[in-house]
Amino acid sequence: MISPQERAAILVEALPYLQHFADQTIVIKYGGHAMVDSGLKESFARDIALLKQVGINPVVVHGGGPQIGDLLKKLGKEAKFVGGMRVTDSETMDIVEMVLAGLVNKEIVSNINRAGGRAIGLSGKDGGLICARKLVLQRDAPELQAPEIIDLGHVGEVSRINPQVLELIDKDRFVPVIAPVGYSKEEGVSYNINADLVAGAIAKALGAAKLILLTDVPGVLDQDKQLRSQLTAAEAHAWIDAGTIAGGMIPKVQCCLEAVHHGVGRAHIIDGRVPHALLLEIFTDAGVGTVFTAQ
């Protein structure tokens, strides 16, 4: 059991971080096991409410892949993936939007509000927040003279973020919770966008102090499978070239590097399976996970 003196020491350790991040924006990508486990969902909501209470401005961007998959299965619709991305026809896009902007988004908003915060749920379509374009996926085809173009349907990428929508909410008493659904005004089409990429684009647009990606891994591991607590951009690129960073970790690392390259203070990949991982990262000297810096 923690003694009163130890509790006081914890608060004192947090003080310089409270002062440093006061009135600054931190963008958090919420996903993985932390969105499924009931205890972790509760601790995440309390962390977000606490951050806002102490004067920090959190912006939450969430995923929802498992929930989309579950509903598609119940409806008897087969899921198809190419390069880890869901092929999304018009009917599937309706389901994706219903799950992300409806079911998942409103559950997160409710959890934060129940924890004492004041959250507002948004889709990227609200106020033109996320302007999107169709993602063009190319794959090498040795038998052809040019790369093969793969049509993923309603899968998009961010073309522009409208920060005014978030600035009005974020600087007030509210916490924006964003579903990664974008819209192309020119095409009149909605797009499903990778939540990591949306979080990175929003962090850049807002000039955030931090970008934090919650994952189901401790962070970036070295060749000996040991956690590396900090990586510079040059080191991270070298690890990718050497194959130390591989598979699904590559796009997450690239998202973090892109963010710090464009002015975000620091970017982090942390283990969302750890209760109160956000507070441990932001308010303690040791932190958790891996932090990326421009230099």
Summarize the structure in words:
Helix 2 packs across helix 4, helix 3 packs across helix 4 (90-114) and helix 6 (195-206) packs parallel to helix 8. The chain is globular and about 60 Å long. The chain has 295 residues and is an alpha/beta fold. The protein contains 9 helices and 16 strands. The strands form 5 sheets. An 8-stranded mixed beta sheet has the order 5-10-2-1-13-15-16-14, with helices on both faces. The model has no long low-confidence stretch (mean pLDDT 90).
**Which strand order spans the largest sheet, edge to edge or round the barrel?**
5-10-2-1-13-15-16-14
Total strand segments = 16
Query: Roughly what percent helix?
Result: 40-55%
Largest beta-sheet characterization: 8 strands, mixed
CA-atom Rg in angstroms: 19 Å
Question: How would you classify the helix and strand content by structural class?
Answer: alpha/beta
Average pLDDT confidence is 90
Low-confidence stretches: none
**How would you sum up the global shape?**
globular
Distance between the termini: 41 Å
Q: What is the ordering of alpha helices and beta strands?
A: HEHEHEEHEEEEEHEEEHEEHHEHE
Report the total helices. 9
